[in-house]
Each structure stands twice: as structure tokens, then as C-alpha cells.
Amino acid sequence: MRNKIVAGNWKMNCDLPMTQDLISKIKRELPGTLDCELMIAPSHPFLYAAFNGSLDTPIEVVAQNVSQHEKGAYTGEVSIDMLQSVGVKSVIIGHSERRDEFHETDHDLAAKTKAAIDKGMRVIFCCGEHLEQRQGGSHFTTVTAQIEKGLFHLSNKELKQVVLAYEPVWAIGTGETASPQQAQEMHAHLRSFIADKYGDKVAQQLSILYGGSVKPDNAVEIFAQPDVDGGLVGGASLDASSFIAIAKSF
Ligand code: PEP
């Protein structure tokens, strides 16, 4: 049985009062039990407040990014030790906004992933194709190349600390969602690509999340796909009722 996960990526949207308010609202909306892990990714300055605000709840606070460097002269960067010192155990790496806006390369992402895993973190590793790549039919090769370059330096044991998030870039923040069939097709492809390298057992245990305009009204159908193990949610995670409705969609 794979872990089901719903993770909210708040991006650069919430200051401290908004972070605290959103966590309070999520806590109020939380049902007695959930069939998935629930994660939120606030901005770095508010991780500690978020961690404290989520104590004694099933909410895990995760980071949106981390440096691959251990410490030192890296102005503006945040290290793995720093994240861990405020209670963070998981980090999103390779979001398309990091790749596209901040020019993070496959090499950078491979280094970040390895550094985080070496320190015992769980990594939510994002991959996904642009619209022209899908229209040109290169979406499978694009995404598998991202996985190969970003993850295939990891051992079998290390890969167990990874959660994959397939996020077609054309569906992020656009309101356009991959169809459940498109999501399933890519997730199954990724699982078999992982199985070729790491074996079927590891591939079957790997949670693969879908991200791209997941909303309460499309989550049930997307999450019902056999290789979709949950969602990485942007816009809809900023509304507590929508976020919890998505988490209830299994
Ligand atoms: C994301 O940023 O990871 C994302 C999937 O955003 P949205 O849900 O808004 O498309």
C-alpha cells in the first residue's frame, strides 16, 4: 500500500498573519480521520511558526526549496540543517518555477536531492513537461530525462525517501488540468521507468503525486487513477475548505 499524500504549495503568497490564519482554518476544517498524509509548504520565514502551529495535528510542514550547500558564504540561501532546526523533515525540490524562473538545472536538483536525503529528509521531487513538449509528443522523454538526471544517482534505499510529483507545466496555475487519463498514463510510465532502474518492489512503493490545477471538483477522478497517489496543490491549497475537500477525495 503506497502512502497517499496531499501537499499544499503556498508559494510566495502568505505573510506571517496569513500563514497563521490559514493554519487555524485548516485545523478547524480537519476531519477526525483522513485517508492521506497532509502537508503544507509555507515560505521559509514562517516555517517555525507553522511547525509550532501544527503541533498535535496530522499536518506536516514542509519547505518549498533548500540549498544543496551545507553552510557558509551563500547569501540568501537556506540550508538543510536550518530547515531541520525548525522541525522540517521534507522539502519540495525541482518545482517548475525553480527550474524556469531561477534556472535551477538538473545538476543542481540532483545535488539538492542527494544532500537532503543524506541528512534524512524526505524529498518531493517535481517533474513535468511544457506545453510545446506535450504538443510535440516529447512529454514522456522530457519527464523521464528529468527523473534520470535528478534521481538516478540515488541508491535503492535512498529512493525510498523520495515522493515524485508529476506536474505538467501547462496545467500549473492555468486552470487547465491534465485529464485523469493523461495523468494516469504519465504516472504509469514513470512507475515503469523507475521499476526498470530500481526494481518493481521499489517502484510499487513510490508515491507519485499529480499537480496542476487540482481542485475539489476534479480531485476525486484524478486520485481514483491507480498510479496517482495524491496531489501537489497550489492555488486551491490557499483556501482551507478547498484544501481539506481535496484531502477528502480518496
Ligand atoms: C503547483 O504550484 O505545484 C501547482 C500545482 O499549482 P496549481 O495547483 O495552482 O496549478
Task: Outline the secondary-structure elements.
Elements: E1 5-9, H1 16-29, E2 37-41, H2 47-53, E3 59-61, H3 80-85, E4 90-93, H4 96-101, H5 106-118, E5 122-127, H6 131-135, H7 139-151, H8 156-159, E6 162-166, H9 180-198, H10 200-205, E7 208-211, H11 216-223, E8 230-233, H12 240-247
Parallel strand pairs: 1-2, 1-8, 2-3, 4-5, 5-6, 6-7, 7-8
Helix pairs in contact: 1-12, 5-7, 11-12
The structure holds phosphoenolpyruvate.
Key attributes of the depicted protein:
12 helices; 44% helix; alpha/beta; 8-stranded parallel sheet; 250 residues; binds phosphoenolpyruvate
Summarize, please.
This protein has helices at 16-29, 47-53, 80-85, 96-101, 106-118, 131-135, 139-151, 156-159, 180-198, 200-205, 216-223, 240-247, and strands spanning 5-9, 37-41, 59-61, 90-93, 122-127, 162-166, 208-211, 230-233. It has 250 residues and is α/β, with parallel strands linked by helices. Strand 7, helix 11 and strand 8 form a beta-alpha-beta unit.
